[in-house]
Amino acid sequence: MNRYFCFISIFTVMISLLSTTISNAQFNEDDLVTRSGINFQYNKQGSPYSLPENMSDELTSFSYYFTPGIGKFFGNGFYAGIEGRIGARSQKYTSLPDGNTTNANSTIYGGGILLRKYFKVAERFTPFVGLSNTFYKEKGDEKLPGQPYSYNQNNFTADLQLGAQYRLSPRFGIEAYYTPGGLLVSKDMNSNQKTDNTSNFGGNGQHFSLGINYFLGKK
Known about the structure:
Elements: H1 2-18, E1 32-46, E2 56-66, E3 69-73, E4 78-96, E5 100-118, E6 125-144, E7 147-167, E8 172-179, E9 181-188, E10 196-201, E11 207-215
Antiparallel strand pairs: 1-2, 1-3, 1-11, 2-4, 3-4, 4-5, 5-6, 6-7, 7-8, 7-9, 8-11, 9-10
């Protein structure tokens, strides 16, 4: 499944990069832009472990985080900027049929860089492909039955973005994008386990985002 999502994502990015011939209009935006977005991620899946036929597990995860940032266009649709990541995650792991549950709640904070390529297909409508590289910390507690556990996790992600922006006015634009996944490197600082490197496509690697852009250079 991960290979399938990886192939689809790479194929989509390649098609997008080749689609610059869709419009003869040159994209020469050069504004400084402030951004404010919110990302959502929801995932519900069965146990990652092999269990007897009369047993099953279920993991439900929901997270959100805000991504304030600022960046600049450099002509021909290229954009580079920095952004923050501030939010929270909640997880619930249920073991059936005994019904034992494990709850985990954490806070997320960090930041990184954002690179994008926009394609002008209409006067107001500009699809884009992007790559965000973010370092963030995740701190929280797992409430195991009779065995609480605190974790302090360092994470690095390199995520793909496939989305579009619509200009409401010379100064304001709205955007939405889908992240099919990317690379996740994580290390629990309270554990002796080694750093975990995961190519994370589909499942808990995908999320959605909505945002507002404000163009500082427009009159």
